[in-house]
Design a protein that fits this description.
Helix content: 40-55%
Number of helices: 12
Distance between the termini: 6 Å
Radius of gyration: 20 Å
Largest sheet: 6 strands, mixed
Shape: globular
Order of helices and strands: EHEEHHEHEHEHEHHHHEHEEEEH
Strand content: 15-25%
Oligomer: single chain
């Protein structure tokens, strides 16, 4: 058994907004050391975090070696691979190869990348089990809002019957603004893009793809569904009209994009105004129905670099506690 104060060593694979968020917050985490950071242009070994953050934000290269991300994963001795490259639901690459190789090389993995888990959940969880390491992915589902670890740890004594959630902050912002300000979809989407809440190409969010990925992960993790993205019946929010929202509001309902994990569906649903799933703005919420604890609802920020990084750090610290 290792001493609880021993240093946990990490690599950060992917240095976009989330990777930079991880580097920012681990600076203040005791007994955690980043041994390598990889972005699309190269690898920084034994990085000074303040320096690489400043260089990245200034548009300068961070690399100080000729290694690749896979070289780091395979050859640099460290405890945890933090995989935070962008999500690709069509095959999961390059994140899938990163996660697969890390597990094969007996390294724990913490990730915010939905792609590998949507593409190969069963394979990756089996690889982790076979090699005696952990695969942690709280940040893939709720950002800073805990769902995976809440169910796995706190609700371990209950059987989960269903999970329903408002799991995409962009969609929730658009629907909230449309309903509260009587604005049209195109107008609110443009506003959200100007504010950085929606991407220039918002399809991934507004078509329900992001929520569907989260449904797949939860279905496989807690219901053993062996599901893929193709198994989810998905309807987005891009055809919702102002008239429909106002009619729902007059009848005491809000319209939210809801992912239902047992049903493997994503679609706009009528939610009673007083229901805890009726969260505003960019907030996310999830209701977890259990046999013994009833219905438990959590809400919080589902996106943002620091918020997502906080969920990653939670998983990292959990691994640190486990090994001590």
């Amino acid at each position: 058994m290792r001493n609880s104060q021993s240093t946990l060593t990490l690599s950060i694979i992917g240095f976009g907004a989330v990777g930079q968020g991880v580097a920012t917050i681990v600076q203040n985490a005791p007994h955690i050391k980043v041994v390598a950071i990889a972005d699309s242009k190269g690898v920084a070994l034994m990085p000074d975090l303040n320096d690489v953050l400043a260089r990245k934000r200034g548009g300068q290269p961070i690399a100080n070696s000729n290694l690749t991300a896979l070289d780091v994963i395979r050859t640099i001795d460290h405890d945890v691979v933090v995989e935070v490259t962008p999500t690709n639901i069509h095959g999961g690459e390059p994140g899938l190869t990163h996660v697969r190789e890390a597990l094969k090389n007996k390294r724990n993995v913490v990730t915010s990348n939905k792609g590998p888990l949507v593409a190969a959940f069963d394979e990756l969880t089996q690889l982790a089990y076979t090699n005696g390491v952990a695969l942690r992915y709280e940040a893939t589902v709720g950002g800073a809002m805990p769902i995976v670890n809440l169910i796995r740890d706190t609700l371990a004594g209950a059987r989960v019957l269903d999970i329903r959630g408002v799991l995409n902050g962009t969609c929730n912002y658009i629907l909230t603004r449309m309903a509260e300000e009587a604005l049209d979809y195109d107008q609110v989407l443009s506003e959200a893009q100007d504010m950085g809440i929606a991407e220039a190409d918002p399809t991934y969010d507004v078509a329900g793809i992001d929520t569907a990925c989260k449904v797949v992960i939860l279905a496989n993790a807690f219901f053993g569904r062996h599901a893929t993205f193709a198994d989810v019946d998905v309807t987005g929010i891009d055809r919702i009209t102002q008239d429909a929202l106002q009619l729902a509001r007059q009848r005491g309902f809000a319209v939210k994009l809801v992912g239902d994990v047992q049903e493997l569906t994503v679609s706009p649903k009528l939610i009673p105004i007083a229901h805890p799933l009726n969260v505003s703005g960019t907030l996310n919420a999830a209701s977890i129905l259990t046999d013994t604890a009833g219905e438990i609802t959590v809400a919080g920020k589902g996106a943002g670099s620091i918020e997502t990084a906080s969920a990653i750090l939670s998983d990292v610290l959990s691994l640190k506690r486990d090994r001590s």
